[in-house]
Structures are given as structure tokens and as C-alpha cells.
Amino acid sequence: MKSAILKSGLVSLFLGVQLMAVATAADLTPVRFVFNWSTADHELIPVVVAQEKGFYEAEGLKVDVILPPDSQTTARLLAVGQADIGFESTTDVVFGVDQGLPIVSVGVYAQRNNWGLFGRPGEPVSLSNLKGKSIGIFTDSWTKAMMPFVYKAAGITENDVQLIIAHDSDTPLLLAGKIDIATNTANYLVPTVQTELRKDPTGLVGKEAGVPDVPVWAYTASTDYLAKHGDVAKKWMKATVKATEWAAEHPEEAAALVTKLYPDSGTLEYNTLGWKSLIPYLKGADGYMVQNDAHWLPIAQALKDTDQLKTVLPANKYYTNDLLK
User: Which of 47, 116, 168, 311 is the most exposed place for a label (fewest CB within 10 A)?
Assistant: First the structure.
């Protein structure tokens, strides 16, 4: 009799726990996060850590990741309400605002520019001898914005080089000898070369490549979403900042999480190297994600100076720190 009562009590307890779990899951507020690329990679680590370590859940959120078909889709999904928080290049934000899209940066991902020109190990890259070289490029807004600065610094025009469009990565083209120079951010190209050749590529990064030293990526949202769900967005930011801090302190474990959840993101070694190369860029003088006018006005002015933008708007049209307060 006692065993039957005990068994009945355990069943009731189990069912009660199950019902509480269902109720808790149902109470979580959904947030749709849209990445800037069709596949996941180590730049998604803060979001993955916040998911896997329960930082979002602790804030009452259930965050789902959307992988768009291309980098141009992120801002559009935000603008039409099919996503809530986004991740995209700072140039996408500037161009989007210029085109009237209701988007704004809510926090910079990295504080400085790690984009540049890269060559094969042992083959130095110099602005003084770019003329006649074949250069791998992408069709995204960032590459489109950066290349005019490279030409100006090198004293050449686009017609002086041979541009080869890469649809996924230009690193294989570089290593195969099909191009002379690859363009990319260091956290993607350098680890790829290191894991494949066990050597470091040569390169010019940031100001060395003649480009402005501004953040490459930012977390974004539509102004409409923020007006209606600013409290939810603040919780998302709080959890994501906490996850970024944790991932910076535990890079190996953080890389292991994204590698396990997204096997197509690359090897554990690649993701670890890529994430570790980003860590020095993530925190600014005022902390993680905090923005200032110097992050935005120089890139907007530079785009205007190279005839890619008609007007430089006030800085508060491009970014807000309200979610970090």
C-alpha cells in the first residue's frame, strides 16, 4: 500500500513538473534574431552562448535564429516585421537609413575595423603595387564601401585591377593561386589559412589598407519594433552583453557551443581561432556594444566623399544606446 501511494505521489510530482515546464516555456517572449549570412559562423557565438547558457531564458525570452538567403535580406526582414533583432554591417545600416528603411543600430558588435587585403604566406601585400593585381571581392555593401578607399590610398582606379567576385569565400581562390589578393575580415581569412597551411597569411588590415577604422558590424532593429517592444529588446541586449562577456572569458567553450549547434560553421579549431581574433575588438572604452558618434559619422562622411552617399545624417539617425541604459 505504501509503495502504491509513493508511486502515485511520484507520478503526480512528475506530471506537475512537466506542466510547470510547459507553462514556463509558454510564458517566454519570442524574439526572432536574423543573422547577416545564410550559414552560421563564429560571429554568432554571443547569441548561441545566451541560448545555451540560459541567459535569454533568465530574461524571459525565447530567441530563435533566422539565417537569411543573403546579407541584403537582413534589413528587409526587420523593416517588414518578419524579424525583431538583426546583425549586419554598419554600411548596411547607413545605406538603409539613407534609403528610408526604419532601422537603427542598437549596439556595435566590434569597436574597430579588421577588414583588409590579404596575400598568401610569404607574399607581402602593398598598396604601392596593387596595379594589375587580381583581387577577390564580394557583392555586399561593406566591400562596395571599402574598395574606393583602397583605390584612393593606392593611387589607382578600379580599372587598374582585375576584380574577381567570390560568392562564398575568396580564400580558396587565393590559396589556389587564382587571385593575387583576397579581401575579407581577419577573423574569417586568417584562421582559414592557419588551419589549412599552418602558416599566417600576409595582409594589410584597417588603416593599413587605407580604409576608415570604424566598426564592421552592428546589432540592429526596426524603429517600429523598438517603439512597441523596447522593453523586450532591452532584455535581449542585457542577456547578449552578458553572453559576450562570458564568451570572451571562455573562448574555447564558446567556440565548442557554436560548433556543436551548427556543424556547418566550420571546425572547432577554425571557430576558436576566429572567435579569439575578435575578442580584442569587442570591448570599447565604455564597454561592450556601447556606441558613439565616432563609430558612425566618419563612415557616413567617407561614403559621401566617395560619392556613395548623398547626405550625412545626424548620428542619432544611425544608432541608439537606449537599450543599454
Answer: 311
Q: Examine the domain organization and report whether 192 and 267 are in the same domain.
A: no
pLDDT in tens, 48-57: 999 999 999 9
Does 58 map to a domain?
yes
Here the CATH number for the domain that contains residue 198 is 3.40.190.10
Q: Is residue 20 part of a domain?
A: no
User: If we measure between CA atoms, which residue out of 121, 131, 89, 92 comes closest to residue 108?
Assistant: 89
Q: What are phi and psi of 13, to 5 degrees?
A: -65, -45
Counting every residue written for the chain, the total comes to 325
- 311 with 303: CB under 8 angstroms? no
This prediction has a pTM of 0.89
Beta strand 134-137 with 181-185: parallel, antiparallel or unpaired?
Answer: parallel
Domain shared by 220 and 235, yes or no: yes
Are 205 and 265 contained in the same domain? no
C-alpha–C-alpha distance, residues 142 and 93, integer Å: 10
Cβ–Cβ under 8 Å, residues 63 and 56: yes
Q: Which neighbouring-strand residues pair with 64?
A: 32
- Identify each DSSP E strand in the chain by its residue range: 29-34, 61-66, 85-89, 103-108, 115-119, 134-137, 162-165, 181-185, 202-205, 217-222, 283-284, 287-288
CB 105 within 8 A of CB 318: yes
User: Strand, coil or helix: what is 298?
Assistant: helix
Instruction: Please count the CA atoms within 13 angstroms of the CA of 59 that sit on its side-chain side.
Output: 23
204-239 residue pLDDT tens: 999 999 999 999 999 999 999 999 999 999 999 999
Which residues span the domain enclosing 178?
Answer: 115-209
